[in-house]
Write a structure and sequence with these properties.
The structure holds two protein chains of two kinds.
Chain A (H helix, E strand, L loop, with lengths): L1 H19 L1 H25 L9 H30 L2 H6 L5 H26 L12 H25 L3 H17 L12 H9 L1 H14 L5 H7 L4 H24 L3
Helix pairs in contact in A: 1-5, 2-3, 2-5, 3-5, 3-6, 3-7, 3-9, 5-6, 5-11, 6-9, 6-11, 9-11
Chain B lengths: L1 E12 L2 E12 L3 E5 L6 H8 L7 E6 L2 E2 L4 H7 E4 L11 H11 L4 H14 L15 H13 L5 E5 L7 H18 L2 E6 L2 H4 L4 E6 L2 E6 L1 H6 L4 E6 L3 H9 L5 E5 L2 E6 L2 H11 L6 E5 L3 H9 L3 H20 L2
Parallel strand pairs in B: 3-8, 3-9, 6-7, 7-8
Antiparallel strand pairs in B: 1-2, 1-4, 4-5, 9-10, 11-13, 11-14, 12-13
Helix pairs in contact in B: 4-5
Classes of the chains: A mainly alpha, B alpha/beta.
The structure holds adenosine-5'-triphosphate and magnesium ion (MG).
Adenosine-5'-triphosphate binds next to strand 2 and helix 1 of chain B.
Chain lengths: 260, 324
């Protein structure tokens, strides 16, 4: 009971802080609009006749959602580093609550913010000509949450090791590019060199993109074309993302528990 | 029952020993103080006792719970006011306290009453809905104390509670702390490097370079210096000298134009002295040895001097930054 109450308390504080930070709030709306404007109008013209057998924007859209989830989830986990810098982390760590509930509160907080932004992208999709079958929305949203949890877990683990916002930002910069380019968002990962394929197998983003794409394009493309892009079954994608989130949150708990 | 019990507690950071084999006990309801200069190991001791830092060796218990094996029970037993600020600037005063109360499992039905109680205690009740980024340093400090109290801890740790506060706010804070002790029978463990604050403690430990060099009541520590100091001014020095020479149990010197007498018990000696001598006196003072004198005697250094040189260093650094 106290366990759940702690998760809720920490989660709620993350959301209150997010809600009061007008810059972050504004960027939640501006960023998806920007993505869609660039990808929707700009890229559609240059890349209209892709050789993938599918409209390029339709192909990219899952990647845009994944990228946006990743960006927001990572950025939201920075709150742990801020808490350390401003002394508030001590207040949390000295409380008689389990470190697991603290880490879960932080992770679900970041994941909630990231999935709400993904939801906005989903709502805006039809405006740039993305065809979305209403029936798939629940399934899609579940995977958005799973991806958000996995990335937030990773972010929290890194944040738990970092002393300053600067070092956290630097590590994020280093991570975001390989994660994104080896996620399958730009090009299918079905025919890439071995090293790329190995990295993509531990890259949570590739599982997210893979799941989003299968869910979104199912029924719009012939099975045979779709299976050419696909890496794993939906179930495997879901399992990997959940497992990844669990491992990362546990690692963060261990880092919090270290008392030098 | 000793509410705090510390045996041979030691903390090393690599080769550097920050806390060196310290031993002490604190009784329930006591105000126990750690007095020492910067870097003495005061905060490090608090970090270990509050389970935030693992000791290198030795052991300690709070409320009979072991700080290494029963961390959750220890955490439930303590309230903490850290040396550095630890409030959430984006939340209101009330939200900061509610967050804390939830983590410490204060029952919902008791929360409202306690909120009012602790906020009134620190005079912030009418500011409870304000975002704390507009609070002054003193208000934030008071709020932190209220927060440390809202779960009714058995032991309240105050790490330099009055640092950075003006003298008026400082003495207000002390009123609160003394009220707490009286009303709640709370045990308070505090650190300070202000001599006059150490005087409020029931007992103090003087700590220097990670070692405790003395533990006793402030009165006893000063008594260990051996007597009081009386100074007398007069225009008839020769007459006074003759008269003083006729008295027993005193040591006297003529320093900087005044007579300095070292006596065992100044309070009872002074009336006696004034009856005995007939020389007209311009003025007389009775001075107790200060804790500063005690620290000086035990370590060969003054606490205050270090403080002064530190602030001087800071000032010159700031000047350099501004390009003077
Ligand atoms: N994490 C750490 N790593 C290395 N050295 C440390 C660490 N924490 C503290 N120290 C060192 O331990 C010594 C004691 O520090 P501590 O903070 O306990 O002093 P203090 O008595 O609280 O001083 P102050 O009055 O300035 O607060 C200092 O020399 C400090 O540099
Ligand atoms: Mg300190």
């Amino acid at each position: 009971m106290q366990f759940l109450k702690t998760i809720y308390t920490i989660w709620q504080r993350e959301l209150i802080r997010y809600w009061r930070d007008k810059t972050r709030l504004a960027s939640t709306f501006i960023q998806p609009l920007m993505f869609l404007a660039i990808f929707g109008s700009g890229l559609r013209q240059t890349l209209a006749s892709g050789n993938l057998g599918v409209d390029f924007v339709q192909f990219m859209y899952p990647g845009i959602i994944a990228m946006s989830v990743m960006g927001v989830a990572f950025f939201s986990t920075i709150s742990t580093v801020w808490d350390r810098e401003f002394g508030f982390l001590k207040e949390i760590l000295v409380a008689p609550v389990s470190r697991t509930s603290i880490a879960l509160g932080k992770t679900t907080g970041a994941a909630t913010i990231a999935s709400s932004q993904a939801l906005i992208l989903l709502i805006l999709g039809p405006f740039i000509g993305i065809k979305i079958n209403l029936a798939i929305i629940p399934e899609l949203f579940i995977f958005m949450i799973l991806l958000a949890l996995a990335i937030s877990g990773l972010g929290l683990f890194i944040a738990s090791l970092m002393k300053t916002t600067e070092s956290f930002g630097l590590i994020m910069q280093l991570l975001i590019f390989p994660l994104f380019f080896l996620s399958g968002a730009f090009f299918p990962l079905t025919a890439v060199p071995l090293w790329m394929s190995i990295i993509s197998r531990i890259n949570p983003l590739s599982y997210g993109v893979d799941a989003f794409r299968q869910i979104l394009l199912r029924g719009q493309l012939p099975e045979a074309v779709l299976s050419q892009f696909s890496l794993h079954s939906i179930t495997i994608n879901g399992l990997f993302l959940s497992l990844f989130a669990i491992v990362m949150v546990s690692a963060a708990v261990m880092a919090f528990n270290k008392k030098s | 029952m000793h509410i705090i019990k510390v045996e041979n507690l030691t903390k090393k950071f690599k080769d550097f020993t920050a806390v060196d084999q310290i031993n002490f006990t604190v009784e329930k309801g006591e105000i126990f103080g750690f007095l020492g200069p910067n870097g003495a190991g005061k905060s490090t001791t608090i970090s270990m006792l509050s389970t935030l830092l693992l000791p290198t060796s030795g052991k300690a218990s709070i409320n009979e719970y072991n700080i290494q094996t029963q961390t959750n029970d220890v955490r439930k037993s303590i309230g903490l006011v850290f040396q550095d600020p630890s409030l959430d600037d984006k939340l209101t005063a009330e939200e900061n306290l509610r967050f804390h109360a939830r983590l410490y499992d204060v029952p919902k039905e008791k929360y409202e009453a306690r909120l009012e109680e602790v906020l009134k205690l620190v005079d912030l009740w009418d500011r409870k809905n304000d975002r704390i980024n507009i609070f002054s340093g003193g208000m934030k400090r008071r709020l932190e104390i209220a927060r440390g109290l809202i779960h009714y801890p058995a032991v309240l740790f105050l790490d330099e509670p009055t640092i950075g506060l003006d003298p008026q706010t400082r003495s207000h804070l002390w009123e609160y702390i003394l009220t707490l002790k009286k009303e709640k029978q709370m045990t308070i463990f505090m650190t300070t490097h202000y001599m006059n604050e150490a005087e409020y403690c029931d007992r103090i430990a003087i700590i220097d370079n990670g070692k405790i060099v003395a533990i006793d009541t402030p009165a006893n520590l000063k008594r260990s210096i051996g007597g009081d100091i009386i100074t007398i001014n007069t225009s008839e020095n020769e007459k006074l000298q003759k008269e003083l020479a006729g008295l027993k149990d005193i040591v006297f010197k003529h320093v900087n134009g005044e007579w300095v007498l070292e006596v065992k018990d100044g309070e009872s000696f002074l009336p006696h002295l004034l009856q005995q001598i007939t020389t007209p006196i311009q003025n007389v003072t009775l001075r107790k040895p200060s804790l500063d004198d005690v620290f000086l005697k035990l370590t060969g250094r003054k606490i205050r001097e270090e403080d002064a040189s530190d602030t001087d260093k800071m000032r010159s650094m700031m000047k350099m930054r501004r390009g003077h």
